[in-house]
Amino acid sequence: MVSNRWAEPTIDDVEYRADALPLFLERVDVASKMRELRSHIHGIAALVVVGTDPMLHRVDEGDGTPAVLWWRASCVFLDAKPGSSIYTGLRLTSCAMHQDGDQQDTVREEFVDRCVQFATKLKDRPHA
After folding, report:
1. 78, 64, 69, 50: which is closest to 5 by C-alpha?
2. Separation between Cα atoms, residue 110 and residue 70, nearest integer Å
3. Structure pTM?
């Protein structure tokens, strides 16, 4: 596996209403965990990290050169404040070249791990 196959992510602010979550957050396992955090945290905010399903893209220029396969993945960091009806946070999105053996689940896990490592490094940086 190439250690630098992911492009620098774009980072966007996101906001979701608790009663109208997007499909990737409405998965039973994710939605139930988010609701559990919101109701049982006793005033302590929690950070929810969710990887979306990566999409595999294929580009074929039709000129006889091999087609190129690449992944687009996102990871969302959401603030689950108790009692709030809004989740706010950040979405990191990046692309990576496809490698032999890649599966959607493993690509999602790889990108989420990289995002968590990135966020951890930011936390440890001295503030300017």
Report:
1. 69
2. 14
3. 0.80
